[in-house]
Design goal:
single chain, 8 helices, alpha/beta
């Protein structure tokens, strides 16, 4: 199913936003779309099979209505209903996808927010988490830069997306002085200036590489003192897409994204792609 965009469909309001986001990208890139709903796994209660069968039938009917609407708009779309653990099923499905798109909570609250972070951490392909539409006019791609391998992968993904869409790319790098306990006094000016200089030199090297790879792309650079997730979030408020790297690893119960990507996904201000 290479080249397919999978949308994880739930009853959350943000799920419709995710479906619409994925449909736009499918139309723009000529990719096919798979609408995938996951019904909770069986526990063995009396009469459960009949209940699950009704839920599966209802979910399939809903997906088929959505698919008919998207097909009429020119999208090549299929539907699938699985049963089991939603996190596990979506992670498994991602192995055969180019992109997995899911809805997310604006502040990452509740079980759906937790599910979204675990799916993003475990997926085999980039994951885009889409909050409920807030009506903000959006343009441009924002990506976090920290010099790591996962940051490089996120930058490549973001640059290709910005180049494809003809939108500007903003490279964001944040720097922070070493935290010290108690009343340590003022930081030396030279120390702070050197921290900023190191951060700026790093992101400038990235910008040079991106411009060489994408000569027509408008590349902007933002270097700011502060918590990286906060700095990225401030730049992303009017962006069409935010991109961060993921350090996802481990068993399902212990999936981690990494502190910055975890914070960005946990406080969604725009559609956010998590790239490993």
């Amino acid at each position: 199913m290479s080249g397919t965009i999978i949308v994880g469909v739930t009853d959350a309001a943000s799920s419709r936003s995710a479906r619409e986001w994925a449909a736009r990208r499918a139309r723009e890139t000529g990719r096919s779309l798979l609408l995938l709903a996951v019904v909770g796994g069986a526990v063995g209660a009396v009469g459960e099979d009949e209940v699950v069968a009704r839920v599966v039938a209802a979910a399939r009917a809903r997906l088929e209505r959505d698919a008919a609407e998207l097909s009429a708009a020119g999208v090549d779309v299929q539907v699938r209903v699985d049963s089991g653990n939603p996190v596990e099923r979506l992670v498994e499905a991602s192995a055969e996808a180019e992109l997995l798109v899911i809805g997310g909570e604006p502040r990452g609250q509740g079980h759906r927010g937790q599910h979204g972070r675990r799916i993003a951490a475990g997926a085999h392909c980039p994951v885009v988490v889409v909050p409920e539409d807030d009506g903000v006019a959006r343009a441009g791609i924002v990506v976090g830069v920290d010099g790591s391998d996962v940051s490089d992968a996120a930058i490549d993904f973001a640059a290709a997306e910005a180049d494809r869409a003809g939108e500007p790319l903003t490279l964001v790098s944040a720097w922070m002085p070493v935290a010290v306990p108690g009343d340590f006094g003022m930081y030396p000016d030279l120390y702070l200036a050197d921290l900023e200089s190191i951060a700026r030199a790093g992101v400038d090297r990235v910008a040079e590489r991106v411009r060489a790879d994408h000569p027509q792309l408008e590349v902007r650079v933002v270097v700011s003192e502060g918590e990286p997730a906060f700095v990225i979030g401030e730049q992303a408020r009017s962006a069409r897409l935010t991109v961060v790297g993921s350090h996802g690893r481990g068993a399902f119960a212990r999936f981690l994204l990494g502190s910055v990507s975890e914070e960005v996904v946990g406080h969604l201000v725009s559609a956010t792609a998590i790239v490993r």
